[in-house]
Design a protein that fits this description.
- The complex is a heterodimer of chains A (142) and B (224).
- Chain A is an alpha/beta fold.
- Chain A has a single domain, classed as Rossmann fold (3-Layer(aba) Sandwich), CATH 3.40.50.720.
- Chain A has 6 helices and 6 strands, in the order βαβαβαβαβαβα.
- In chain A, strands 3-2-1-4-5-6 form a 6-stranded parallel β-sheet, with helices on both faces.
- Chain B has 2 domains: 129 residues, NAD(P)-binding Rossmann-like Domain (Rossmann fold, 3-Layer(aba) Sandwich), CATH 3.40.50; 69 residues, 2-Layer Sandwich (Alpha-Beta Plaits), CATH 3.30.70.1450.
- Chain B is built from 7 helices and 10 strands.
- A 5-stranded parallel β-sheet of chain B has the order 3-2-1-4-5, with helices on both faces.
- Classes of the chains: A alpha/beta (142), B alpha/beta (224).
- At the A-B interface, helix 4 and helix 5 of A face helix 4 and helix 5 of B.
């Protein structure tokens, strides 16, 4: 698979490394910060590109060749949305996933056909789950 | 509800930079209800004395903020922050969540122009003459300012100001050799809108609106 990842923070770099382990995958990581890209290390088998995620020019370069997956994982919602829309609408990438921290924004753009995930909602669920057993015990104790 | 009160609109302007600030003031002078939204505290307090309740502190790309400022009853939303992605997302959210009839986005990176239109944002500088002439004031004379892209982005309405050294000044339209696929649709002269025909004469300081296919834009620019 040809996989494009925008944003090389903790999440982006982790996924990039994981996906690149499969030698059948071609992974391309984009970040505007060179330091972020260096996190991947010298032995990273994929390609890295230093570029701004909201600059159309890079996509005409990268996405002119068919990509299977596009992941927008920066910590800026709007950047992720715009990049995802470019990939989806203009370059017809089949699988486009965007990270959106604002739950309502995530829902709004989900309706537009972009698959989103929201770290805030996921954390909320996780935290509530972690709290529940303790709460049950507390209730019993009373 | 949309067409009845044509004169008075509720306009939300996002981004209190030079454009947003001036646009807000001019729209207020025109008697519109305007709310300028700025996320930077320092800039907000700088303008707060002057603009009072017409300026709001907050990040308009946060859905909560859009809700609180009454986006649902806005007639027009203009996003003129310095970030293309922010402008795009705000316009889209205003459309999807609050059905704002007209959304206008500023684009800083010209390379992004194409996608903005293909992403279905109105990306339309309001055809009510006020807003687009206001935005146009921020732009150097002699440039073709995109006003509206028609579907597909192949045809555009552009506008430009006729300067005194333009080759077409004091010429009748029928004597101007326009490129193919190009039509002058209106002329704004002072407060008047002129529906041009062949013997209309172009004057200095006229704002000319033209319908033109994208690949003829450069040719049109040379002629005007």
């Amino acid at each position: 698979m040809r996989i494009i990842i925008l944003g090389c923070g903790r999440l982006g770099s982790m996924i990039a490394r994981r996906m690149a382990k499969d030698t059948k995958n071609q992974v391309i990581v984009i970040d505007k910060d060179n330091n972020a890209l260096s996190k991947l290390g010298n032995d990273f088998p994929g390609k890295v590109m230093q570029a701004d995620g909201v600059n159309m020019a890079i996509y005409s370069q990268i996405l002119s060749e068919k990509a299977d997956v596009f992941l927008a994982l920066t910590n800026i919602d709007n950047t992720n949305i715009m990049a995802a829309e470019i990939a989806k609408q203009k370059y017809k990438v089949e699988k486009v996933i965007a990270r959106i921290d604002d739950p309502i924004r995530a829902k709004a753009f989900e309706e537009l056909g972009i698959e989103t995930f929201c770290p805030t909602t996921l954390s909320e669920k996780k935290i509530l789950k972690m709290m529940t057993p303790a709460k049950v015990e507390e209730d019993r104790g009373e | 509800m949309t067409e009845q009160n044509m004169d008075k609109k509720f306009v939300i302007v996002v981004g209190a930079g030079k454009t947003g600030y001036n646009l807000t003031k001019l729209l207020m002078e025109e008697g519109h209800e305007v709310l300028l939204v700025e996320k930077n505290k320092a800039r907000y307090f700088e303008l707060n004395n002057e603009l009072g309740e017409n300026i709001f502190l907050g990040d308009a790309s946060e859905s909560e903020v859009l809700k609180n400022i009454g986006t649902n009853r806005a007639n027009v939303l203009v996003a003129v922050t310095g970030d293309d992605d922010t402008n795009l997302v705000i316009c889209q959210m205003a459309k999807i969540m609050y059905m704002v009839p007209r959304t206008i986005a500023r684009i800083s990176n010209p390379k992004n122009e194409d996608i903005f239109s293909s992403l279905g944002v109105d990306n339309v500088v309001n055809t009510t003459q006020i807003v687009n002439s206001l935005i146009e004031k921020e732009v150097d004379a002699g440039m073709l300012v995109p006003v509206m892209e028609l579907k597909g982005g192949k045809v555009e309405i552009v506008e430009t100001e006729i300067t005194s050294n333009s080759p077409v000044v004091n010429k009748q339209i029928k004597d101007i050799k326009l490129p193919e696929d190009c039509l002058i649709v209106s002329i704004v002269r002072g407060d008047d809108v002129i529906f041009p025909h062949g013997n209309t004469t172009l004057q200095k300081d006229d704002t000319v609106m033209a319908l033109v296919s994208k690949d003829k834009k450069a040719e049109l620019r040379k002629i005007l």
